[in-house]
Write a structure and sequence with these properties.
alpha+beta, Heat Shock Protein 90, 5-stranded mixed sheet, two-stranded antiparallel sheet
């Protein structure tokens, strides 16, 4: 599919309708050939084979020529309407040579009208209705009668049987195409729902980024004041005679170090909030990414990493800092959920064109109603003061923006498993 089709919903819809209409026409060609041959050689009905086969051949040729052209250049409502108008004319020709309105297949005009209602604009649909009515009216005046039996009763028996077959053919075509349209609509609705969820998540992320920027701005001034006062206090203690009590200078130095740590945390807040657009996409090895993620975690509970060398050597095109923070957030949650002495399992594997990071803890697990809400911002199952409920939300936001996915599995007393799938060859979103 072309670049334009991917970004133009109407063109994508037209391409889909054109593809299925072509398949439907091939089915019509096959059905017409079978009907003609069965009527002529099995039922011994006298049919003018040359003109009938010529009309069927014209339909097949038009479909072949249509498929030979680049679809993105011709997929327009006018083309679809033109194809269906040609089919109405070809059907009229077939009916002309086979009894006109007395042919039990004459109501197949309704198939084209039904399909036009689904895939064409109103103007084209009404145009096809008028064309079908006009062709049907012409057939009442001009047609070549068929000899269907030596008597009127035999004629009616053959006609009724033909009506039954025609009904089945029309029903099959209509049900087939309508169900295809229904599946397409369901798929489109699922895509729209996913887009709405992603848009809502992006809005929440933007709010968090604004909150982070505001917090960094508000906290920078008092932290600077604390740093200056602590430095002056340290200088004053160094000049005191006699020397201050043991440990006081160390406490002041610790205050300064913690202030510097707070500043570093504030500087990372935008990255931690999932703002991957501010970080360049680079090629990074999987083993390097895993080691950097593990380096920033507590040693207990233990994390047992399973990283095959073949997978570790693979390269991911990602913003490394953002993905590292996403992995750390999930791993940290697993550590918090695991009881003492129970390790967290961290396995990395290649699954198709993705690298899948699987994190499993042996904690208490979660009931379905809690699992359904995990990942919402500010929703957490941790005790007060242990977390803000942002780790998984930020991880999911980062990974989904890379074209990946985050999936959770959990049950009470069975722990929780998180799977993070990241595309091997990603890159910035278009």
């Amino acid at each position: 599919m072309s670049h334009d089709a991917l970004h133009d919903p109407q063109l994508r819809t037209n391409l889909t309708n054109l593809s299925w209409l072509q398949r439907l026409r091939w089915g019509a060609v096959a059905g017409q050939l079978i009907t003609i041959l069965v009527a002529r050689f099995a039922l011994d009905v006298e049919l003018p084979l040359p003109p009938l086969l010529a009309l069927v051949g014209l339909e097949a040729l038009s479909n072949a020529l249509l498929q030979a052209r680049p679809p993105a250049r011709v997929a327009t409502p006018s083309l679809l309407g033109g194809i269906m108008a040609l089919d109405v004319l070809l059907l009229s020709g077939l009916l002309y040579f086979t009894g006109g309105p007395n042919n039990p297949f004459s109501f197949l005009f309704l198939v084209s009208i039904s399909l036009a209602t689904l895939i064409l604009p109103a103007a084209w649909t009404w145009a096809l209705v008028l064309l079908s009515l006009g062709c049907s009216a012409v057939l009442f005046a001009w047609n070549r009668p068929l000899e269907l039996g030596p008597s009127h009763a035999a004629h009616m028996v053959m006609h009724l049987r033909g009506m039954w077959v025609a009904f089945g053919v029309a029903a099959a075509f209509i049900v087939y195409f309508v169900r295809r349209i229904r599946r397409a609509l369901e798929q489109r609705e699922a895509e729209l729902e996913a887009s709405r969820v992603l848009a809502a998540r992006q809005e929440r992320l933007a709010s968090l980024a604004t909150l982070a920027a505001g917090a960094a701005h508000e906290l920078s001034t008092p932290l600077s004041t604390i740093a200056v006062v602590a430095k002056e206090l340290e200088r004053g203690l160094a000049a005191l005679e006699p020397a201050p009590p043991a440990g006081v200078a160390d406490d002041v130095r610790l205050v300064r170090e913690e202030v510097a740590r707070c500043r570093a945390i504030l500087e990372r807040m935008c990255v931690d909030a999932g703002q991957v657009m501010g970080e360049a996409f680079v090629s990074v090895r999987v083993d390097e990414l895993v080691h950097r993620a593990l380096a920033g975690l507590e040693p207990r509970p233990e994390i047992r990493a399973d990283l095959p060398p073949a997978v570790g050597g693979l390269a991911l095109d990602v913003p490394p800092r953002a993905v590292e923070q996403a992995l750390q957030g999930v791993l940290r949650n697993a550590q918090d959920a695991s009881p003492a002495g129970r390790p967290v399992t961290f396995a990395v594997a290649r699954v198709g064109d993705r690298v899948e990071f699987t994190v499993r803890d042996e904690g208490a697990g979660m009931p379905p109603e809690v699992l359904a809400r995990v990942g919402e911002p500010f929703f957490t199952t941790k005790p007060a003061g242990r977390g803000m409920g942002l780790g998984l939300f930020l991880a999911r936001t980062v990974v989904e923006r890379l074209g990946g996915a985050v999936a959770l599995e959990s049950a009470l007393a069975r722990g929780t498993t998180a799977r993070i799938a990241v595309p091997l060859r990603g890159g910035p979103p278009a």
